[in-house]
Amino acid sequence: MPEKRRLFEQAIITKKPVSDPDGYDILCTASNGLEVSQNVAFFPLENPPDAGPMTVANVLALGPKQQVPLVRVKILPGGAVSRMVQWDGGPRELKQFHVCDRSGQTKLTLWEDKILMVKESRSYQITSLTTRRFGEKNTLTSTWSSTIKEIEDVGEPDTLEAWDDELDVPKICGRVIKCDVVARYYCVICHGSQTNVHEKSEGHRCEKCDMLQRRETFRVLYGGKISIFHDEQELSLRLTNVAVSTFVSEQLGSAPTDVDAIAWKLTCAGTVELEVDSSQTVTSKWLMMIHVPTKLRGQTQC
Ligand SMILES: [Zn+2]
User: SUPFAM superfamilies under this entry (predicted)?
Assistant: First the structure.
């Protein structure tokens, strides 16, 4: 660009920004120099070849914190139970699954309501993941924008590695005394969390992006507390989203978002059997996590 040379020379000499007619400032530091070279050929950048799905072997070869646009994996049976972590300003539920395709095997962490979107021994196409490095191996984790779609079986490698996740989740039986269910709403457009959604109203204006939307379009995550009478004591347990959502789909059929109706149904559940994870940070001996109310039986004794 011979026409720019004078401007660059001026910037080199004065060590001050020089405005060029196109509206850019040319700024050179003391270490910059100016040389004249032969014409340099420029080649337009070609678009990268169509990415397509990555295999598990591709994923294992990546570095940590890399984006994985698309994988097709099978959820293997077994694996750890879900757990709660503090993340991004609140308690979040996550669950690690063992996944594979014909090329290899790794782990997949799904967050919150995405935990409920997969079933063991089935295969899924999952988008917008990132890699995490645990020890020597890359694992996958879902993001806010991940989508999950069931597909035909993708197969397994010739040999599967064994794993030793904690599978024994203690079950506690007891009669429900009281219950409280809360719903947290998130905008599907901007992911902003909402603090003031009226459950009876049809519409809600997102408190972050200001878009007015039907209330049902907001993503809802449940939480809450349940007290049961167990072993002649009252136990207070925390309800996770997976626990409440599983209860809703198994016991109420559809997915009502009226938390009072869900809480009342749980309160009237009689004697329940609950999977409780005691490995969490507990603020008292009896404050634990309920994962899934596996079976809810009228008034029968466990
Ligand atoms: Zn929004």
Answer: Nucleic acid-binding proteins
* DSSP letter assigned to residue 54: B
Q: What is the pTM of this model?
A: 0.69
**SS3 assignment, position 259:** helix
With 90 as the cut, is the pLDDT of residue 150 above it? yes
The pLDDT of residue 60 is 93
Is 105's pLDDT higher than 90? yes
> For residue 230, what is the domain's CATH number?
2.40.50
Distance 188 CA to ligand 1 centre (A): 7
Distance 212 CA to ligand 1 centre (A): 9
CA distances from 82 to 38, 89, 266, 275 (A): 63, 19, 21, 11
Interval between CA 195 and ligand 1 midpoint (Å): 12
Ligand 1 mean position to 192 CA, how many Å?
Answer: 5
Q: Compare 141 and 239 and report the one with higher pLDDT.
A: 141
- Number of domain units in the chain: 3
